[in-house]
């Protein structure tokens, strides 16, 4: 590992301790699938800024659009007047929405802000207060979204009380339900929908419940896709009780799972959809979209924000949408996903390491690998007691040493793959080779 530079030491002294990071090295520049570090290393990036730089770092078309916009209008405040990039972005997004009824937008800056905007809209539109969230779900670290986030306690520890009116129900993930991995999906879904029904009978009455919010693929909760039957079940419950269904596509949207939005795989229509991350390929931009009849239930002036829907970020997002079409990004995701799953499934069958891999799951280029490392917690019920400890974090560290950034996720022992959506065949092979070597080495070390 390269020595810590003087600039990195400055960061260690003066950046808030509450901000964690994979490494204390300094990024100098990014190009495509690679990050170039101040210490001279060239790192293959299988994190893309946690799913933000979906089309790679400094995509020429997107960066040029932002640079050009900087020379004409940087800040066209949304409460003063319309600006052109904001309207052009809506024009580009409407054709790719998962349902034609999703036609009215509000743009903000971060994913957490957009989640809060969705909750604010749901409460205003329904006249009801409470929100139901999923166990394992992640929606942000602001004060409102901390109450909604149920993936790890670290995000809200030491700052209670949080926003009231939030109730959690199980998500159909075998490990989270305390059931064997062989449990049929239908049984998991039935169990979770039953618990939802109990929650509406015992904890928050339908007449008090404004919304159910769900990630079509759990992000921080372990990269677990929601079964189609579960999403369909949520839709039926919401229709029955006049509850709004919110799809949080902050991490799973914009091609990450091989569809523009992961909810498309189920055919389920959300009432409100939250978007961010891949929307502007690194420029701070988020948003919500809903039916006009729902959006119009908010009075003028109730929504806004100084930097909301920034002109430069919107211009980048317009270019991003155009690049998706011109470069046939979704086709590339399908091809590279097939290669990635092929390698990971092969490792699962490998006689030397496969028995330590509990699960390979995901869709497109949003893929998780769960290991069987024991940690002594109650959720280790189905882990292998003979497995090496903390496999995921040790493998991530070894990948870093070999020249690739790879993140872990959730309270379980999971690594997550979030490479660029336009990654080449050659770089995908390079990344999977590094991962395979790292798995074998760490397992041998015990």
TrEMBL record:
A molecular function (GO) term: transaminase activity
PROSITE patterns attached to this UniProt entry: AA_TRANSFER_CLASS_3
Domain of life: Eukaryota
Stored Pfam families: Aminotran_3
Keyword Coiled coil among UniProt keywords: no
Cofactor: pyridoxal 5'-phosphate
CDD domains: OAT_like
Assigned keywords, A-Z: Aminotransferase, Pyridoxal phosphate, Transferase
Gene3D superfamilies found in the cross-reference section: Aspartate Aminotransferase, domain 1, Type I PLP-dependent aspartate aminotransferase-like (Major domain)
TM annotation in the entry: none
Keyword Transferase listed: yes
Protein family: Belongs to the class-III pyridoxal-phosphate-dependent aminotransferase family.
Record protein name field: PLP-dependent transferase
């Amino acid at each position: 590992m390269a020595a810590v530079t003087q600039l990195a030491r400055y960061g260690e002294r003066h950046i808030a301790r509450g901000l964690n990071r994979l490494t204390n090295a300094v990024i100098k520049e990014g190009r495509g699938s690679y990050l170039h570090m101040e210490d001279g290393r060239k790192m293959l990036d299988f994190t893309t800024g946690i799913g933000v730089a979906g089309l790679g770092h400094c995509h020429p078309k997107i960066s040029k659009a932002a640079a050009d916009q900087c020379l004409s209008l940087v800040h066209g405040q949304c409460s003063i007047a319309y600006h052109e990039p904001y309207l052009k972005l809506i024009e580009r997004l409407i054709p790719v929405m998962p349902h034609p009824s999703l036609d009215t937008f509000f743009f903000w800056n971060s994913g957490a802000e957009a989640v809060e905007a969705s909750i604010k809209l749901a409460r205003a539109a329904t006249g009801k207060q409470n929100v139901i969230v999923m166990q394992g779900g992640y929606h942000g670290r602001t004060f409102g979204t901390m109450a909604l986030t149920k993936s790890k306690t670290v995000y809200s520890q030491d700052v209670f009380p949080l926003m009231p009116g939030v109730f959690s129900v199980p998500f159909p993930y075998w490990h989270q339900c305390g059931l064997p991995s062989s449990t049929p999906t239908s049984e998991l879904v039935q169990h979770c929908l039953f618990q939802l029904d109990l929650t509406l009978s015992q904890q928050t009455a339908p007449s008090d419940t404004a919304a159910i919010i769900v990630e079509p693929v759990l992000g921080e909760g372990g990269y677990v896709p929601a079964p189609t039957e579960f999403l369909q079940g949520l839709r039926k419950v919401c229709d029955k009780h006049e509850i709004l269904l919110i799809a949080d596509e902050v991490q799973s949207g914009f091609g990450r799972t091989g569809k523009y939005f992961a909810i498309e795989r189920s055919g389920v229509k959300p009432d409100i959809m939250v978007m961010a991350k891949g929307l502007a390929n690194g420029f701070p931009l988020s948003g919500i979209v809903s039916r006009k009849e729902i959006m119009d239930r908010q009075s003028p002036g109730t929504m806004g924000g100084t930097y909301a829907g920034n002109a430069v970020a919107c211009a980048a997002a317009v270019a991003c949408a155009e690049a998706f079409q011109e470069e046939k990004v979704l086709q590339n995701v399908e091809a590279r996903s097939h290669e990635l799953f092929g390698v990971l499934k092969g490792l699962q069958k490998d006689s030397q390491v496969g028995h330590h891999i509990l699960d390979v799951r995901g869709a497109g280029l949003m893929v998780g690998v769960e290991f069987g490392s024991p940690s002594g917690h109650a959720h280790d019920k189905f882990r292998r007691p003979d497995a090496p400890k903390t496999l995921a974090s040790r493998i991530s560290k070894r990948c870093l040493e070999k020249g690739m950034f790879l993140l872990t996720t959730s309270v379980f022992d999971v690594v997550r793959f979030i490479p660029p959506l336009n990654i080449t065949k050659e770089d995908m092979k390079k990344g999977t080779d590094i991962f395979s070597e790292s798995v074998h080495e760490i397992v041998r070390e015990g």
